[in-house]
Structures are given as C-alpha cells and as structure tokens.
Amino acid sequence: MTPTTSAPVTGTAPVSADYRLSAGDKLRIEVYKDAQLSQAVQVRPDGKITMPLIGDIPAVGRTSTELRDAINKALSEGDFLADPTVTVIVTETVPQLVYVQGEVSRPGSYVMVNGQMSIMQALAVAGGLTEFANKKDIRIYRKGARGVQILKFNYKEALDSVKEPLALQAGDTVIVK
Question: Which domains does the chain have, with CATH numbers?
C-alpha cells in the first residue's frame, strides 16, 4: 500500500459512542421468518461478511444498526424479501488496539476503552513523551480502503486548543519522532 499524506490534524468532531464493528467480531444475523438467511457470521480480515442471496457486505466501521440497515436494503433491492426484518447481534468482540511507538516512555499496544481513544489519551497511557520527542511532528498511520493515510498531529498546539482531540481508530499506529 502506498502511504498518502493529509494536512495536519489537531481535532475532529466527537465520535459516536455506539460500538463499531471490527475484523474478527462474531455476529448473529436473524432474518425474521427466514431460517435459511439467519446465521452466525464472523467479520473477515477484509472487513466484510457474506450473506446468502446478497453476497459480501462491508461490516468494519459500521454499528450493528448500520449493518442491519445495509442488509435490509440489499434484501429489499434484490427482490428477495418484500419487507425484511433483520436483527444484527454482536455476540463476541475482539479487543480494539492502537499502537504507540517512538519517543514515549512505554511504547506498545493499548486497548481502546469502549472502542474510543484520543491521541492525547494514547500518549498518556504510553507514559507521555520523552524529552527527545518532537512535539510538533507526531504521525498517525491509518490503514484504509485506499491504502495507508498519514495524519500529522502537533502536540504543542493541541495543549492550547479547545477543540476535541483527534480520535484514533482501531489499528492506528502513532509514531512519535
């Protein structure tokens, strides 16, 4: 994957508190009055699940409600069911991790609490920045559908900002130079 660089980021809009699906999560999908479509599935490493009649559906990053709506839409549009009633139940989750390395006291992988963690929280759980850290050029590597995106973060600016700190996503790697 070819890295792409974006503009410096110091804050983002608040993130929804709803759990977002990630690879490895186990789901139970129930289609009311259709036992053949109801099944247990696991979100694949490529972020999708496979459903009879409709094939692959992206699941990673969606809430269970968003996935339910996508399945409903696909079943309705495909003329498979006139008015499907679908329920998506998360039966098992995998830990959502972020990775912090470089000039921090305790580099490593850290579990996101309730699927959420800001860049400031990640730096705090990693023991803070060392005296040699470049506080103006912290980078977040984020894997996406179009490759790896590199977000730049300025710690010094963030300390003086009233904006929400940058929200990390599961799998992000924070590198402090």
Answer: 4-17+95-176 (3.10.560.10), 26-92 (3.30.1950.10)
